[in-house]
Write a structure and sequence with these properties.
Chain A: Keywords: Repeat, WD repeat. Chain A: One of its GO terms (biological process) is cilium assembly. Chain A: This is WD repeat-containing protein 54 beta-propeller domain-containing protein. Chain A: It comes from Gouania willdenowi. The complex is a heterodimer of chains A (305) and B (389). By secondary structure, chain A is mainly β. Chain A has no helices and 27 strands. In chain A, the strands form seven sheets. In chain A, strands 1, 2, 25, 26 and 27 form a five-stranded antiparallel sheet that branches. In chain A, strands 3-4-5-6 form a four-stranded antiparallel sheet, with no helix packed on it. By secondary structure, chain B is mainly α. Chain B is built from 13 helices and eight strands. A two-stranded antiparallel ribbon of chain B has the order 1-6. A two-stranded parallel sheet of chain B has the order 2-5. In chain B, strands 3-4 form a two-stranded antiparallel sheet. In chain B, β3 and β4 form a beta hairpin. In chain B, α4 packs parallel to α10. Chain B is globular, with a radius of gyration of 23 Å. Classes of the chains: A mainly beta (305), B mainly alpha (389).
Chain lengths: 305, 389
């Protein structure tokens, strides 16, 4: 169904972090941006669609007010909002928001970290663009920071403290539902057509109906921790990638009349001797996808013929 | 990232170091070795193991490690481990310490990478501790130190969630990133490829708590299963085996962390240098913080009274020279870079080099009075003292 295409080389190898691959398609410029995190650096590659031009950039997590800081980055992700695209980078020290090409930092939010390390680690992770103009970032304490993103200018922090799973966003956020964890660690979550798709440390993928929390489907998908999930919204393709070296492509289909979901397996790719840490579709139809792995200095690409 | 990595790092790296030293010292206990003078008797070996284990599991040192703090650089790690090794009558020069460190780190990297569940890192640690207890079983005082540390580890880590263990593991993986030093034993076992990367299998038992992949289950709105079907897995997995014991004793079940050198020949503790990415040599901006940590750690290690060693100097080869290594490498790596080896001298001399600075720092942490150094070394700078190691 897919075959391997020419890989993109990156300056450093990928670190073993969840969802360690960001992809943003810029149709007007016929470019795609890729981001991969290595320790305290974000490697950005910009690839032209004709395959002829590549450019690289590195963003270092350096906080403006700390002279000697080697803050490890937890995650870098693109947030595509209707008005603008942004790149969000989270670390132990705080959250940085850049223009999507990484050229300018438009916002910096410091996490409150105590002088000496406390019992548990403090960090921010879990980035999501919500509705029209919000970006949400999770914090290790369980809080979620919500940023108002104006179409131009500086984002504004609109803090909310809540341990939860699902909100309905409108004028303000309301808690809709809480989905219990079953003592399994969830590393990746996607929302599509009213369904929550979650990937777990046990290797399972579960699909829940968002509003009611009903379990629609359960897949024993992988033999090790799932590190990344992605959905191609126009086609309903689901991509899952895990430490077991496998990337799997599934098809999700909803039947509103019976309120059921169907999950079909389509394709496997094995990246030999690699623990995969990031996998994303490169377009909304799922025509192509890209993969990163721990200690690998390349972004592997697969495309349908 | 995680602030709880140091105790596990030191116990596991220290354990690997002891496995290697034990194996090398045993191999030198025969008349076939190339040493110019003398051999290492069982007694000598036992003494070395006791000294090193006693220092590694020193209470003040362990308490310092157990405080929440970030993982430090390879340079600091190597310095402290060198100091621990030199708590014995053994002396390793910088080149052999470099080789030893590479072996230790690659072994631990392999164990962390292949760890089935993040929580199983504790089982790997306990495998090391079980073996360490055996090394010092004739010295109850030191066995007690190991037991006490084991209890503290259980206490600190028993409340961790799987997510916290995975964060710890990810922190360690960043620490090991880009290290691809080839190890003879791994190459021979096919656990490592000629390019230095570890081989990962897509078969075998799944981790405890996971299900064998291959099943899709669909439910209706009342939670009843309406359909199930399989899918091609592209691997061959089996059900998980029973979990190991997380207590003071008991079968650990996992084999990662066991002494892989005991069954193999003496040539196995070899490494060869690939042109891998070297550790960042640029000035470390956190140097001052790290030096302070170093001072605290070293000061908390007990410097014991030493008896004059009558036997004099022993010059010993820890790692063999080029000719034997070439034979081995030719088969394994075919065409790769020729390994570089140095003749490594181990000197069994007394080290009364306890500097006055260390003694001062030690005074804060240890109960017994330290032997203040007679060595007039004129070192005022902690940094300069580290260069001397």
């Amino acid at each position: 169904m897919y075959h391997k295409e020419k890989s993109l080389q990156i300056k450093n190898s990928a670190s073993a972090l969840y969802n360690n691959l960001g992809v943003l398609r810029i149709a007007p410029k016929q470019l795609t941006y890729f981001t991969v995190v290595h320790a305290n650096v974000v490697n950005m590659v910009s690839a032209s669609w004709d395959g002829l031009n590549y450019s690289h950039r590195q963003l270092q997590s350096k906080e403006p007010n700390v002279a000697t800081s080697t803050s490890l980055i937890m995650q870098a992700a693109f947030c595509a909002l209707p008005s603008r695209d942004l790149l969000v980078v989270t670390s132990q020290k705080g959250i940085q928001i850049y223009e999507s090409d990484g050229s300018i930092m438009v916002y910096w939010h410091a996490l409150e970290t105590p002088e000496t390390p406390t019992e548990t680690a403090v960090f921010a992770r879990g980035i999501s663009a919500v509705w029209e103009n919000y970006i949400c970032v999770g914090v290790s304490s369980g809080a979620i920071l919500v940023f108002d993103i104006p179409s131009k200018g500086t984002p504004i922090l609109n803090n909310t403290n809540c341990n939860l799973c699902l909100w309905k966003s409108g004028e303000e956020f309301q808690v809709l539902n809480k989905i219990p964890g079953f003592d399994m660690s969830c590393s990746s979550v996607k929302l599509w057509k009213g369904t929550v798709v979650a990937g777990y440390g046990s290797g399972q993928i579960r699909l829940y109906e968002a509003v009611t929390g009903i379990l629609h489907a359960e897949v024993n998908a992988h033999a090790r921790w799932i590190y990344s999930l992605d959905i191609a919204p126009f086609s309903g393709l689901l991509l899952s990638a895990a430490e077991d070296s496998l990337v799997r492509v599934w098809h999700l289909s909803m039947t509103p009349e019976t309120n059921t979901v169907e999950v079909a397996h389509l394709h496997n790719e094995c990246v030999t001797d690699t623990q995969i840490c990031g996998a994303k579709f490169c377009d909304g139809d799922g025509y192509a996808f890209a993969v990163t792995g721990y200690d690998l200095s390349e972004i592997i690409r697969y495309v349908q013929p | 990232m995680s602030v709880r990595t140091l105790p596990l790092v030191f116990i596991n790296l220290g354990g690997e170091m002891l496995y290697i030293l034990d194996q090398r010292l045993r191999s030198l206990n025969t008349s076939e070795d190339n040493s110019e003078k003398g051999v290492w008797s069982d007694n000598d070996r036992s003494r070395v193991m006791n000294d090193i284990v006693g220092t590694l599991f020193n209470r003040a040192f362990m308490d310092e490690l157990l405080k929440p703090q970030h993982l430090y650089s390879h340079r600091t790690m190597k310095t402290v481990l060198t100091r621990i090794a030199h708590a014995s009558i053994m002396r390793l020069n910088a080149a052999s310490m470099d080789r030893l460190y590479e072996l230790m780190v690659m072994a631990f990297k392999y164990q962390v990478l292949l760890c089935p569940r993040p929580k199983d890192m504790l089982l790997i640690t306990y495998n090391h501790m079980d073996a360490i207890r055996e090394f010092v079983q004739d010295t109850p005082v030191i066995v007690n130190q190991v037991d006490e540390t084991h209890r503290k580890i259980i206490e600190v880590y028993s409340s961790f969630t799987e997510g916290e263990f995975q964060l710890l593991r990810q922190t360690l993986l960043i620490f090991f990133q880009d290290m691809h030093v080839r190890v003879s034993l791994f190459l021979k076992n096919k656990t490592q490829n000629p390019n230095g990367r570890f081989a990962l299998t897509t078969s075998g038992p799944v981790p405890h708590g996971s299900d064998v992949p291959g099943l899709i289950r669909l439910f209706d709105c009342k939670g009843r299963e309406v359909r199930r079907h399989g899918f091609p897995v592209a691997g061959s997995y089996s059900s998980s085996i029973r979990p190991g014991s997380f207590g003071l004793q008991g079968p650990r079940v996992i084999r990662l962390g066991l002494n892989m050198y005991t069954m193999s020949d003496t040539e196995e503790t070899h490494t060869s240098n690939t042109p891998s990415v070297k550790a960042d040599e640029s000035p470390n901006l956190l140097a001052k913080e790290e030096l302070n940590l170093l001072a605290r750690l070293m000061g908390s290690m007990r410097a014991e009274d030493r008896v004059e060693d009558e036997a004099g100097t022993f010059r010993v080869h820890l790692f063999y020279t080029d000719e034997e290594e070439d034979e081995e490498e030719a088969g394994a790596s075919g065409g790769a870079e020729k390994p570089s080896f140095d003749l490594i001298n181990i000197q069994a001399t007394q080290d009364e080099h306890v500097t006055s600075e260390l003694a001062l720092i030690a005074g804060q942490f240890t109960e017994a009075e330290e032997n203040s150094g007679n060595h007039s070394d004129n070192r005022e700078d902690l940094l300069a003292m580290m260069d001397d190691l």
